[in-house]
Amino acid sequence: MGASQDIAISDYGEKAIIEAVSQCPSCETTILGPGDDAAVVSANDEKAVVCTDILVEGNHFNLDWVEPFHVGRRAIAQNAADIVAMGARPTGFVVAVAAPADCPVNTLKEIARGTVEEAAKVGADIVGGDYSQAPQLVICVTATGEFSPGEKNVLRQDGAQPGDIIAVSGNLGWSRAGYEICSGKFGSMDNFMSNDLVQRASALYGCPEPPYEDGPVALEAGATSLTDVSDGLMLNLFHIISKSAARQDKSCPDSVRRYEGPPEAGMVQAQLDKKGILAAASDELFGLAELCAQHTDSETAEELLLRWIYHGGEDHALLGTFPCSTKPPANFKVIGKIVASAPESPGYIMVDRELVEDYGGWESFSDEPLAK
Fold it and tell me: How far is it, in rounded angstroms, from Cα 79 to Cα 252?
């Protein structure tokens, strides 16, 4: 890391620093190491899944916009989504909370109540945790999971192959829309804020609704890759494509790495269909975009809609690839296909034959945290 020791984290990027500090697994108990939605380790001749995530007040959530109860639910939801994105089912959660000394006790109680309620939705408990003092409220959750008995496969991010179908299950764009509504981008008039679609977006910003059952279903259906849309549809799809390209280099098969540089001929490329993406996002979201466009002069309804879908994360939908010979499970909607890269169409992602150059999405070390 000598060459990068003077580079600020904000310039280096979250994914790059994770790769810089990660090492290829060296223990036989590690089945899949760093780089994917979760790690996989051995457990009495079977496989256990584990992941962790952190929420920081002012960076990931704002208590002026979201009740503590829903912050607790969200802390569990985003970790449970990582577990199911591996094709596994959550089995337990450990929750650590750091808070200022003057933090109201009821705030911590409500966060705890939210974690218990969301964990119950996936049939798991809060099995432990810790409390400590800090200048601001911080919630860190570690989740564990297991595969169906006898399941030999693991859903990785790097398994996409030419010919695969790209499909998505769950909500797209709602959380980003809710964030912009809560931040006051479209004003705060009572008749606007009380609208049912506005209320739904605000609720989904407070706590997403991941399609928990669809991860194991995707694994059973033969999915070649899967991830949850935590950073944004385009950015998370880019991770699948670049990691699938890097897997051709098998230098570190027990972890997941990105391919560095522009794609070469023969590597995988995503070709998306805009109509398919809009169909996957629902008519209700378009109705919300039309409503919000009436309260801003800077963007049309379609521009709002596409930005929410393409670049908005935190919905924790499931994005995956399936062999062309396999029909995706019922809840998955097809939005495109995987092809081999060609010299005449360089790039990782195309939408209606136009190259996507800006993946947008969430970056933990950006200069302007979104208080998401």
Answer: 25
Sheet order of strands, 89-99 included: 30-32, 39-43, 46-56, 138-146, 89-99, 125-133
Provide CATH code, domain 29-146.
3.30.1330.10
Q: Where exactly does CATH 3.30.1330.10 map onto the chain?
A: 29-146
For the residues 294-309, what does the mean pLDDT come to?
95
pTM of the full predicted structure? 0.87
Tell me how far apart the alpha carbons of residues 111 and 126 are, in angstroms, rounded to a whole number: 12
Q: Which helix (H) or strand (E) holds 333?
A: strand 333-340
The model's pLDDT over 223-279, given as tens digits with 9 standing for 90+, comes to 999 999 999 999 999 999 999 988 876 667 778 888 877 788 888 999 999 999 999
Fold of 165-355: Phosphoribosyl-aminoimidazole Synthetase; Chain A, domain 2 (3.90.650)
Cα 87 to Cα 81: distance, rounded to the nearest angstrom:
10
